[in-house]
User: Fold these one by one.
Assistant:
Number 1:
Amino acid sequence: MTLQLHYFPTLNGQKVAIVLEEMGLPYEVHIVDIMAGGQDDPAFRAINPNGRIPALVDPGTGAAVFESAAILQYLGRTSGQFYPADEAIRTRIDSWLFWQMAGLGPMSGQVNWFVRAAEKPGRDPAETSLALHRFRKETARLFGVLEGALAASDYLVGDYSIADMCVWPWIEKYPDNGGGLAGYPAIARWHTRILQRPAVQRALVLGLDAIGLPHDPTANSNLKG
Ligand SMILES: N[C@@H](CCC(=O)N[C@@H](CS)C(=O)NCC(=O)O)C(=O)O
């Protein structure tokens, strides 16, 4: 049965695209144009009352799943791939999923938002500086945690898993330090290792043609996400 991915090419959307491509599952893409209010469409709200992409509908089971990590867990459970049933491994993967969803995503997302807000002409820097200080500091701490976890192993939990696929897109948001991943050699190696995977390459261009965007991730960094 063909899965229905409700999608826009943002970091949270890419997570699910990567997982679907890695698992080789049949799916069709339904673009929800979040730049044009598609997330408020009542038909989409019936799938995700929270009005955010991504969401996944599985006509085979009747499941309608929202929150990207919940989608990853669903696909891992139902496909039996990249999410070992061994309780010790699975719960460790879950820990990294929550870490991304509650930590790295929101913190680096706030940095990104406040950086853009601070750049707006006429904005008083005092309005954004405290928030930027707080969210940058926490994002840097989280990058330190990730660096430590990857220093001694190629992937976050044993073999390549949905934990890596959940965290990986968010590395792109490392905020404006000018040095990229220079201070994080283990993250940089892991990032390159995963970037080279054919499934990841396919996922990164998913939906870009449909909304008229170039196949250049750096050119699309102003998408909501
Ligand atoms: N925690 C949610 C976050 C979803 C989310 O924030 N999606 C963004 C795009 S990455 C969105 O739909 N934004 C639309 C808006 O801000 O109105 C998840 O991981 O699925």
Note: The chain has eight helices and four strands.
Number 2:
Amino acid sequence: MIVYGASLSPFVRKVLAFAAEKGIDVQSQPVDFANKSADFLEASPFGKIPGFRDGDFSISDSSAIIHYLEAVKPEPNLIPKDPKAGARAIWFDEFSDTILVACGGKIVFNRLVGPRFFGMPGDEEVARKAECDELPPLLDYLEGLIPASGFLVEERITLADISIASPFATLDHAGTAIDGARNPKLKAYVDAILARPSFAPLVAGEKAFLSRAA
Ligand SMILES: N[C@@H](CCC(=O)N[C@@H](CS)C(=O)NCC(=O)O)C(=O)O
């Protein structure tokens, strides 16, 4: 199985960590955005990462890929079967993809990706507004939900934790850390999820890459 795209992307990291938690061996294949390969475009017709291939089957979108992985290897179960717990896991995945990343992306694009990889000056006002005005209510929302178990759903690692933690590694690369004084539970929770063997090598590799590319 091939996952196209670099784990600096929260969506790609989510898929790679999900596969690692399930014990599924995937090959990570970088994408040259200036020269997208036919194989990649077949998997991801709109050129977004991650794309995915399993033999002659290909698909894009992190959540679609994750549902495929869960279906082909049901154990260990990471999308709860209980209707309410399952729905909550999907909600956290969706909240992360469409609300948290939409906000964090303004910081990441303007402070990291644009200037470092596309030679474009970032719009600091957009980044500052996202960091100071838009992100804090999202973090406060999560702060109020972190249970003592350290897991959002069913007191065990699920898609919910993988989806919520992933964007925080990318935000950290862009210089935005969770304020431990304002959101102590969220900070401890995210630190613990990102320290898991499914995430830690990815994040370490990204840090090494960014320091080489500096
Ligand atoms: N909903 C998609 C979002 C994928 C996405 O937007 N990926 C970004 C990288 S974080 C991308 O490929 N951007 C390049 C582009 O839009 O051309 C998913 O969950 O996979």
Note: The pocket of glutathione is lined by residues 9, 11, 47-50, 61-63, 97 (CB under 6 Å).
Number 3:
Amino acid sequence: MNQTSNKEFEIEVRKNIERQGENEELKKASIDWIRQSGKYSYNFSWLGRPIIQYPQDIIALQEIIWRVKPDLIIETGIAHGGSVILSASLLELNAFCGGPKDAFVMGIDIDIREHNRLAIESHPMSKRIKMLQGSSIDTKIVQLVKDLAADKKAILVILDSNHTHEHVLNELLAYAPLVSVGSYCVVLDTVIEDMPDGSYSDRPWGIGNNPKTAVYEFISKNNNFEIDKSIQNKLLITVALDGYLIRNS
Ligand SMILES: C[S@@+](CC[C@H](N)C(=O)[O-])C[C@H]1O[C@@H](n2cnc3c(N)ncnc32)[C@H](O)[C@@H]1O
């Protein structure tokens, strides 16, 4: 391999990502792959706890958390705890490297099962995790989170709870305004829109009623956010197609 400078390598990577974004065949193959993959996202863990994410999205979150250096991450949808532990561990690394010392994750879930709560509370990363049980769109929960956010400088929001259009739109209306300029509101599972009809017959969401339709409605009325396509063009395999929203003003 030719030795390149940092700048040249950055340019090469950017061009590669742009080429991927223009490659309709590759993008279609990636969606086809996801359509075949079933519960692939269940296969992984982070520091010992199950995380229901694709490895590609985990890398994207690492890149965002390193770049933004949040002092608060608001996450809806805790489940087994892997994703809040991921965020907490990346905040711990940021702090180790000179980032915000007291950064933490505010996780919200309507049903924090006892075994999950115990595992999260006894995890070494728990010092950077706070949890609230209740619906993420409950006005009391939203107010508690707003109060916590009031004195924070860099806020990242990650939405991964109930995936209906109405719920995600309400989460976006409640939490996106807390995102700091240059940071993100990451809306996971937008890919539901691209899955075969009937894939979620036991769920209230599906084609036409999911996080992606909520993102489109939100974006159409909030021009301080835009979809950062460079992230999905980089990942190709992601559950958050059109779900990485960057706050630009
Ligand atoms: C897909 S799982 C979250 C996965 C987790 N983020 C991870 O990466 O491992 C969805 C979670 O959302 C929670 N949930 C469902 N409806 C909710 C609501 N209205 N408010 C908050 N959480 C909700 C569920 O209890 C479940 O634990």
Note: The chain has a mean pLDDT of 97.
Number 4:
Amino acid sequence: MMNLTLKIWRQKNASDKGKMVDYPLSGISPDMSFLEMLDVLNQELIGKGEEPVAFDHDCREGICGTCSLYINGRAHGPATKITACQLHMRSFKDGDTIYIEPWRAEAFPVVKDLIVDRSSFDRIQQAGGFISVNTSGNTQDANAIPIEKENADKAFDAATCIGCGACVASCKNSSAMLFVSAKVSQFALLPQGQVEATDRVLNMVKQMDEEGFGNCTNTGACEVECPKGISLENIARMNREYLSASLKG
Ligand code: SF4
Ligand code: FES
């Protein structure tokens, strides 16, 4: 069993200044997940009549992208290619001090404690992250359209982005380029995505800029911290898509 000191960001609401608060926690099993460890803390806090720590989670299996925790200065913690909910306490040692903070980015304002508002990502998606489907009765079976294996694989890899925002949180410029480029690439590589290709990239980039995300300076921290291993190659593809769409427009 492990004894830990947690230093957790507490912030009552969006306008509260917020501060780090120390919580000693004992009896933690190395087999617990990181979120189960926070559940134990919250159970203790509730038992003492104190306000539990607010944190986001849903699937707890690396799919939904909501568990946006900055742990010991890294998005999703010390392990690579996993989300905070997939992190286990065996990644830490007995006696460790663990710093837990929310994502920090102007476009992700803190709602409460460790929860941030990532609706800026939703608005970027709504600006172009979709395809039109012909529902006239002539709809072609998707499997009848030949697609090169290499493109199908790359499109699938891009589609694994879970919209967690770790790329933004780990970027010194709070750039959302990796996220947006994954969403653009997912369609740019497939015939189904060609109908709206020009509008898609222009509108999604415009929305990204309006939301207050910073510029990309090719630092590459996003790729390192992305739990799904989304490649920087997608950013290069989006830049090409953007240039050719601008020339058409
Ligand atoms: S690109 Fe990676 S880090 Fe960024 S939102 Fe998608 S899955 Fe998360
Ligand atoms: S809770 Fe869904 S990805 Fe972590």
Note: The chain has eight helices and seven strands.
